Amino acid sequence: MKKIEAIIRTSKFEDVKTALADLGIDFFSYWDASGVGNEKMRRQHGYRGTVDTQFIRRIFLSIVLRDINVKKTIDCIEKAAFTGETGDGMIFCYNIEESVRISNGSRGDASTAGPGDMKLIE
Fold first, then answer.
1. How many CB atoms lie within 10 A of CB 24?
2. How far is the first Cα of the chain from the last one, in angstroms, to the nearest whole number?
3. For residue 82, is it left (φ>0), alpha (ψ between -120 and 50) or beta?
4. From the CB of residue 51, how many other CB atoms can be counted at a distance below 10 Å?
5. Cβ distance 89 to 11 under 8 Å?
6. In the structure, what pLDDT confidence band is assigned to residue 95 with cuts at 50, 70 and 90?
7. What's the pLDDT score for residue 120?
8. Comparison of pLDDT for 5 and 34, the residue scoring more
9. Residue 94 pLDDT > 90, yes or no?
10. Of 113, 82, 96, whose CA–CA distance to 4 is shortest?
11. What is the pLDDT of residues 29-81, one digit of tens each?
């Protein structure tokens, strides 16, 4: 099993969520994130005033899934989150040693199985 973490632009969240649902990923955790990167600070002027692009709002995604689904999921996030501009985000992948579904005690791959899981394995 693997854990995918992605930091994406808030403006791309709906695109990523829809793309993941189309792929069969029907559950993931997410939360607002902020940080400082290496981007050059620029000021953008728009109808909402001046914005420092160094501090573009981000969403942090966390998904645990079977190894067989990792490449498709990473490719999906990368494509849906892409704008072509500096600051599009990052994707990280980690090994998961164990997982337990608290509601029924299932462990390992069985604990991550969901209704959409079979769609990815076809």
1. 20
2. 18
3. beta
4. 14
5. no
6. very high
7. 45
8. 5
9. yes
10. 96
11. 999 998 776 666 566 555 656 655 566 789 999 999 999 999 999 999 999 99
DSSP structural state of residue 1: -
CA distance 29 to 62: 5
The number of residues in the chain equals 122
Query: In this structure, what token pair is assigned to residue 19?
Result: 């793309």
CB atoms within 10 A of CB 63: 22
Q: What is the largest CA-CA distance in the chain?
A: 53
Tell which residue, 28, 42, 113, 110, has the closest CA to residue 77: 28
The pLDDT value given to residue 16? 98
Quote the radius of gyration of the chain (alpha carbons, Å): 17
Q: Which two tokens stand for residue 105?
A: 């005690």
